[in-house]
Amino acid sequence: MSTTPRDIARELARRYSTMTHEELNVLERIIIPMRFAKGRQILSEGEVCRNIYYLDKGLIRQYYLKNGKEVTEHLGSDHSIFMCIESLFKEEPTTLQVEALEPSFVYALPKADLERIALHNVNIQMMYRKILEESLIISQVHADLVRFESAKNRYQKMQKLYPQVILRAPLTYVANYLQMTPETLSRVRASLLFD
To answer: Which regions span the lipid bilayer (predicted)?
Structure first.
């Protein structure tokens, strides 16, 4: 991995909060680098999610099983955050699973350590809050997308919000995330070529 925990601390500070040199040092010490091969589970059903994850490079899919079928809840690519928020805060086993769709470089921020250092560092506290806010907004945007938008608008909004995911994720997962069949997604994509 060419990226270091220090680089990730700087990136998180840049995106979510300004930090002093000392706060960057404190944050850097809790960041855990992880590497996942394509197809590996990052988190399995029944495990307790204990980390907020920063995906530095790669592609992940968060999904759950419903009536024996996989339902994609989230797709994430380079420089994004993911977590199983309910499991993280209730400290209960998750029903979600997270899989690496490409070789992925991930950095874990253990919740217990993050909360401990946030108590004494106001900028880390601000970063933590903004990460959680962003996660909730992403969930709401997805919920609204599938509730209120036509199939064509869902796809177009996803293209705009997550262009790398559209380019790199298997279309079956994109269709599943948008709550449409692969056939509907193919028709939508074809219709956009002639617009």
So the answer is: none
CA diameter of the chain: 57
190 by Cβ neighbours in 10 Å (0-12 / 13-18 / 19+) ranks as: exposed
Question: Alpha-carbon distance 4 to 48, whole Å?
Answer: 26
Contact 56, 105 (CB under 8 A): yes
The pLDDT tens digits of the residues spanning 12-56 come to 999 999 999 999 999 999 999 999 999 999 999 999 999 999 999
pLDDT exceeds 80 at position 187: yes
User: In angstroms, rounded to a whole number, what is the distance separating the alpha carbons of residues 10 and 145?
Assistant: 32
Q: What percent of the chain is modeled with pLDDT above 70?
A: 99
User: What's residue 193's pLDDT?
Assistant: 83
DSSP string, the chain: --S-HHHHHHHHHHHH----HHHHHHHHHH-EEEEE-TT-EEE-TTSBP-EEEEEEESEEEEEEEETTEEEEEEEEESSEEE--HHHHHHT-B-S-EEEESS-EEEEEEEHHHHHHHHTT-HHHHHHHHHHHHHHHHHHHHHHHHHHHS-HHHHHHHHHHH-HHHHHHS-HHHHHHHTTS-HHHHHHHHHHHHT-
Q: 91-104 pLDDT, tens per residue?
A: 999 999 999 999 99
